[in-house]
């Protein structure tokens, strides 16, 4: 018997060597620490369906990863190196084409062992294996035969699959299950214990398969044709025909063209081609891709329709997220792309990579809006993963833009119509050390007209591929279940009936809350990098220059602040120290070194001084509260805690609205006090015996640190003071919000010239618009029946408190232009 086992083992080893002459694997989760395996307890690996080829791949990957091996006490022992079993084998004759899966004898023996030996734990590690990763295409025999799918392949089909897709095999190890925890409640019934463990494993494999392969896809022509036959689109066709005096058939053809223009045509061939091209691209232009918290996406994809909501910094965002998801065993999402990207050559590739195209505005085209809404509803109700940018366009300033409600509203309305499939939003933050479009953003910030995307601008971008853009981070934030948000906004939403056109009265509140939560979760998953820290410190310097030793020390101390009171668990910080970060920025060509006998000077010069505001703005929100507290001591030697809490609390709602800070207004008092304690602990403030909080003495290193810290947020507060000053100049009920925006922008532009401010967002009209809107939301300002802004004495109190943070020169400049007294 022992001789037979030895021969059998040699045969399997030989077959494994032969198989891996062809097969190439991409493996996920095979690190023992990641799996969380206890080395002191026996391990048994489980595959879903009996297959010699799958067994050979599993054996090889277990050996490659050095995972724990077999235990002699287990009834399942497949050789000297490991233990594994199949959940299901085959029953029926060899000549039958389809055989019903049945529990294997090894599976039943393991359950029996667990019942007989309650003191012996066994760790069951589920392993999922995919020979190629392709979504099914209805009516496509080639895809059904030649790709791994939801169905169980026969021997001939499996051979063809291995031959065609063996070089893109994906293996995923998952966290172990405890055998004793599963069977403990069924000590006297093995059959029930068998059913429970089988059900748990079956559910697990189904979730992983859905996450990796995605739901079954309809043929694109079938999908497009089906959209035109939905009741909502039929009704829109009838209404359009009447309103525009057109024949219904012509309107139907137009609706079909709209659907054809919109719909994606995801192709696994294109996805695999893009994977190879993008792997080459990333290696060429980046020094690496750091992926953090991918676990969130993997867990969300198993039971939900996932909506990925990334920040939008670059056109690279589209490709980067799909690549990261695919490399980590998840199906790339369908991506909402602007119709401007549907250009020759590029458009068809993006469409086959999962992009669906949308026009900038639906306002004057109800037929198009209905077709697009129905397409989105199909995506969500069938469980597809979708990606869209809530900001609408790319951020030219490096800040998170105000979310646009359109796509979020469509998602909510679709979910209300059919909420059988849960929807979960997964925020994603892209942290670029050097954004590819940086120089074009610089031109736009200086007033240059935005270039339209076309094949020629693409050619210009290709020329940049010889440059290095540092490292890029892809951070996944905490998930947001849509049902939970609706429960908080309108607890009875499940009891109401909804159709395609119905908009409940509370919809705007739900979308507003969802928008705020998505934006704040994206910002809470920010990746701090050396460029951002260097930019933040240098832009806080008086002349945008600093002694190198002083700069490196400041950067270390500000990084320590972020560690002392972490903004969120999903924020990532760079490795190394200030000295490493300065050297890195110099190597990237973003800072200038000026040698000097008393010590080198590090400075920002020319266009880099403006460009670095982009990278400072990426992380500005992390320092918003400590910087706000520091700014209160700009013109005050000391303040008591209550005054600090009050003043910071007054400013916080506006900072929260602009920077999408994560703290609720109800908890901000505790957060402010915590930050005061941290600043005292770090020596930036001092607590006197009488409870007063004091700033350091002038000329000390601590005072320099405090002053530079205050400058991180001071321009934002100055902008608020400008808006309030202009409004008070006009008086209550004398100016519209639009007129106020224009006047604030002109004054801010003037101050930018007078004081040499290198922050283009200082006179950004959108930021003034948001601040004015926040004043209205907080009932400090109201609109009368004529649309004019009215205010009470409360605005004067806000203006008086704001004076604490402004220097004398800037107060006088604002007062001079707004003709306000001292």
UniProtKB/TrEMBL annotation:
The protein's Enzyme Commission number: 2.3.1.15
Pathway the protein takes part in: Phospholipid metabolism; CDP-diacylglycerol biosynthesis; CDP-diacylglycerol from sn-glycerol 3-phosphate: step 1/3; Lipid metabolism
GO biological process terms held by the UniProt record: CDP-diacylglycerol biosynthetic process; fatty acid metabolic process
Keyword Zinc applies: no
Keyword line: Acyltransferase, Cell membrane, Lipid biosynthesis, Lipid metabolism, Membrane, Phospholipid biosynthesis, Phospholipid metabolism, Transferase
The keyword Lipid metabolism appears for this protein: yes
Location of the motif HXXXXD motif: 311-316
Source superkingdom: Bacteria
Catalytic activity of the protein: sn-glycerol 3-phosphate + an acyl-CoA = a 1-acyl-sn-glycero-3-phosphate + CoA
Membrane topology designation: Peripheral membrane protein
InterPro entries assigned: GPAT/DHAPAT, GPAT/DHAPAT_C, GPAT/DHAPAT_LPLAT, GPAT_PlsB, Plipid/glycerol_acylTrfase
EC top class named in words: transferase
Location of the protein in the cell: Cell membrane
Gene Ontology, cellular component aspect: plasma membrane
Recorded GO MF terms: glycerol-3-phosphate O-acyltransferase activity
Record comment regarding domains: The HXXXXD motif is essential for acyltransferase activity and may constitute the binding site for the phosphate moiety of the glycerol-3-phosphate.
Designated name of the protein: Glycerol-3-phosphate acyltransferase
Species annotation: Marinobacter confluentis
């Amino acid at each position: 018997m022992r001789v037979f086992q030895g021969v059998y083992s040699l045969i399997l080893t030989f077959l494994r060597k032969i198989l891996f002459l062809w097969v190439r694997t991409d493996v996920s989760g095979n690190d023992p620490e990641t799996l969380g395996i206890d080395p002191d307890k026996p391990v048994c690996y489980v595959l879903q369906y009996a297959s010699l080829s799958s067994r050979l791949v599993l054996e090889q990957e277990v050996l490659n990863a050095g995972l724990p091996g077999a235990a002699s006490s287990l009834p399942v022992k497949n050789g000297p190196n490991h233990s594994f079993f199949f959940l299901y084998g085959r029953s029926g004759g060899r000549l039958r084409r389809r055989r019903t899966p049945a529990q294997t004898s090894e599976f039943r023996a393991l359950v029996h062992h667990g019942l007989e030996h309650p003191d012996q734990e066994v760790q069951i590690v589920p392993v999922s294996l995919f020979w190629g990763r392709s979504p099914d295409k209805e009516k496509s025999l080639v895809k059904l035969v030649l790709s791994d799918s939801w169905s169980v392949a026969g021997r001939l089909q499996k051979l063809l699959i291995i031959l065609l897709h063996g070089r893109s095999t994906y293996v995923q190890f998952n966290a172990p299950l405890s055998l004793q925890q599963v069977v403990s409640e069924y000590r006297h019934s093995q059959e029930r214990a068998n059913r429970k463990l089988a059900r748990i494993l079956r559910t697990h494999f189904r979730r992983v398969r859905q996450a990796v392969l995605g739901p079954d896809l309809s043929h694109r022509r079938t999908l497009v044709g089906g959209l035109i036959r939905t009741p909502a689109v039929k009704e829109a066709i009838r209404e359009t025909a009447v309103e525009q005096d057109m024949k219904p058939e012509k309107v139907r053809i137009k609706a079909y063209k709209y659907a054809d223009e919109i719909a994606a045509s995801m192709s696994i061939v294109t996805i695999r081609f893009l994977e190879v091209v993008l792997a080459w691209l990333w290696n060429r232009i980046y020094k690496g891709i750091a992926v953090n918290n991918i676990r969130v996406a993997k867990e969300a994809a198993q039971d939900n329709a996932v909506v990925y909501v990334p920040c939008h910094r670059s056109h690279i965002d589209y490709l980067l997220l799909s690549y990261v998801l695919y490399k980590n065993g998840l199906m790339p999402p369908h991506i909402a792309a602007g119709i401007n990207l549907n250009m020759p050559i590029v458009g068809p590739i993006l469409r086959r990579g999962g992009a669906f195209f949308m026009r900038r505005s639906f306002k004057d085209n109800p037929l198009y809006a209905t077709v697009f809404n129905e397409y989105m509803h199909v995506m969500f109700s069938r469980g597809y993963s979708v990606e869209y940018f809530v900001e609408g366009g790319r951020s030219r300033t490096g800040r998170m833009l105000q979310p646009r409600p359109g796509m979020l509203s469509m998602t909510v309305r679709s979910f209300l119509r059919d909420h059988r499939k849960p929807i979960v939003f997964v925020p994603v933050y892209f942290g670029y050390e050097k954004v590819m479009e940086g120089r074009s953003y610089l031109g736009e910030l200086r007033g240059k007209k935005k270039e339209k995307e076309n094949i020629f601008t693409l050619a210009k971008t290709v020329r940049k591929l010889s440059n290095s853009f540092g490292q890029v981070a892809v951070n996944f934030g905490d998930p947001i279940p849509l049902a939970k948000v609706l429960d908080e906004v309108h607890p009875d939403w499940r009891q109401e009936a909804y159709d395609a056109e119905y908009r409940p009265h509370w919809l705007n509140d739900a979308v507003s809350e969802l928008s705020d939560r998505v934006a704040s979760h994206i910002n809470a998953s920010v990746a701090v990098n050396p460029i951002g820290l260097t930019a933040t410190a240098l832009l806080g310097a008086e002349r945008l220059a600093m002694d190198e030793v002083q700069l490196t020390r400041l950067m270390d101390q500000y990084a320590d602040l972020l560690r002392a009171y972490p903004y969120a668990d999903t924020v990532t910080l760079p490795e190394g120290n200030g000295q490493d970060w300065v050297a890195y920025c110099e190597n990237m060509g973003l800072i200038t070194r000026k040698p000097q006998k008393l010590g080198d000077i590090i400075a920002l010069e020319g266009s880099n001084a403006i460009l670095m505001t982009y990278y400072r703005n990426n992380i500005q929100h992390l320092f918003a509260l400590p910087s706000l507290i520091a700014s209160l001591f700009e013109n005050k030697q000391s303040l008591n805690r209550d005054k600090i809490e009050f003043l910071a609390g007054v400013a916080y709602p506006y900072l929260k609205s602009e920077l999408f800070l994560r703290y609720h207004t109800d908890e901000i008092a505790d957060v402010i006090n915590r930050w005061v304690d941290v600043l005292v602990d770090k020596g930036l403030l001092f607590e006197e015996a009488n409870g007063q909080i004091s700033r350091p003495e002038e000329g000390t290193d601590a005072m320099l640190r405090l002053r530079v810290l205050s400058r991180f947020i001071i321009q934002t507060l100055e902008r608020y003071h400008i808006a309030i000053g202009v409004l008070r100049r006009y008086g209550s009920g004398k100016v519209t919000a639009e007129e106020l925006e224009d006047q604030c922008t002109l004054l801010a532009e003037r101050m930018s010239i007078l004081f040499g401010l290198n922050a283009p967002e200082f006179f950004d009209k959108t930021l003034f618009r948001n601040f004015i809107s926040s004043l209205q939301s907080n009932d400090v300002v109201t609109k009368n029946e004529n649309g004019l802004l009215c205010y009470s004495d409360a605005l004067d109190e806000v203006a008086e408190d704001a004076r604490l943070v402004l220097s004398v020169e800037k107060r006088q400049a604002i007062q001079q232009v707004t003709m306000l007294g001292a």
